[in-house]
Amino acid sequence: MHFFLIVLAVHALVNFYLALRGWQALEAAPALRPWWTVFMVLMFVAYPLGRWLEKLWFHPLPIGLHWIGSFWFAVMLYATLLVLLIDLGRLLNLAWPWIQALGVDNMPLLKLRALLIVFGATLLIVVGGHINAWYPKIVRLDLTLPKQAGQLEYLRIVAASDVHLGTIIGPRKTAKLVATMNSLNPDVILFAGDVVDEDVKPVIKQNLGENLRQLHAPYGVYAATGNHEYIGGGEPSIRYLEEHGIKMLRDTALLVNEAFYLVGREDLHKRWAKGEERKSLPQILEGVDPSKPLILLDHQPYRLEEAEQAGIDLQLSGHTHHGQLWPFGYITRKIFEVSRGYHQKGNTHYYVSTGFGTWGPPVRTGNRPEILVINLYFKE
């Protein structure tokens, strides 16, 4: 509850700052000020109101509010950064009157022009980020493990994390995910958590599970839980995925084709959602043959040394989105040992994906969405 109150307070403060600056910038066009007030109130309430109404009434009105509010988060970020830059210039003007030195004598007109520049620049950034979010890149990685895997010489893994199925990631994006994954000729398909974006009801209403049923791989389709599955209640989302062809690995190790193990850890958020701790890796790996390849799905890339100590060969994670929106990637780099990409510790290989979908705004400005192809070669 405290977390959501803090988020709401920050949301309110940022919107108030933008509303105030916009009001001041409209000094040269006072007739627009009432419309600006109405616009800012609508933007402020759009996301929380849309999400609340959506739970009661899955209809174009709350869906539209959800989309508007989601885009507004990205607009807020970049408009705020640009307005702060302008305010920095105004502060510098107090020490050195550079604005007057430029011969500007109509300050109201200058403010209006600054507002239009902020609007135009923000629009370009957000539209560009939205287009970027719809075109995932294919990341290819070849790795050799010093183990044998039965009769297999190599294994092609096609993987993704942070799909966030729901209102924003709907039928078109889900169909794109499925078609792309199938086109990569996977031996096995893996999802490293956050397949569902919190509430599973929009997923059910849009029948996105039928898209997931179209995923095909000889050794199956598997997923670990993410924090968003548990934010949405856990069991309803997990049950829905299981019913639509995805085997959920929940603190378990599964021997596939007598050749390799798939290990899935429950997400750390289970502790907050259900009051239960997840199992440790040594507990999960009891009875496992360590001479066979061990592939781990663990959504949040914390405490990477645990996988190394447990003898895991490959860990796939997500969660970070590598910030999704610039400049948040600098923050995720500070929080996580690996915020994105490939890493190796000892004999353990790690890959932290930037994710396929988006959370919040359907915009990516800090990186590309991605689908991962890993060719695992076995050579003892």
Helix count equals: 14
Global mean pLDDT = 94
Q: What is the distance, rounded to the nearest whole angstrom, between the alpha carbons of the first and last residues?
A: 52 Å
Instruction: Please indicate the percent range of residues in DSSP E strands (runs of 2 or more).
Output: 15-25%
Identify low-pLDDT runs. Answer: none
Instruction: Provide the helix percentage.
Output: 40-55%
Strand order across the biggest sheet?
1-12-2-3-4-5
Instruction: Name the structural class.
Output: alpha/beta
Described by strand count, sense and barrel closure, the largest sheet is: 6 strands, mixed
**Rg over CA atoms:** 24 Å
Order of helices and strands: HHHHHEEHEHHEHHEEEHHEHEHEEE
**Structure summary, number of beta strands:** 12
Shape: elongated
Give your account of this protein's structure.
The longest helix is centred in the first third of the chain and has 36 residues, at 60-95. A 6-stranded mixed β-sheet has the order 1-12-2-3-4-5. A 6-stranded mixed β-sheet has the order 6-7-8-9-11-10. By secondary structure, the chain is of the alpha/beta class. It has 14 helices and 12 strands. The protein has helices at 2-25, 33-56, 60-95, 98-101, 107-133, 171-183, 201-205, 209-212, 227-231, 235-243, 270-274, 281-284, 305-310, 328-335, and strands at 137-145, 154-160, 188-192, 221-224, 247-248, 252-256, 260-264, 294-297, 314-317, 341-345, 348-352, 370-378. α3 packs across α5. Helices cover 46% and strands 17% of the residues. The mean pLDDT is 94.
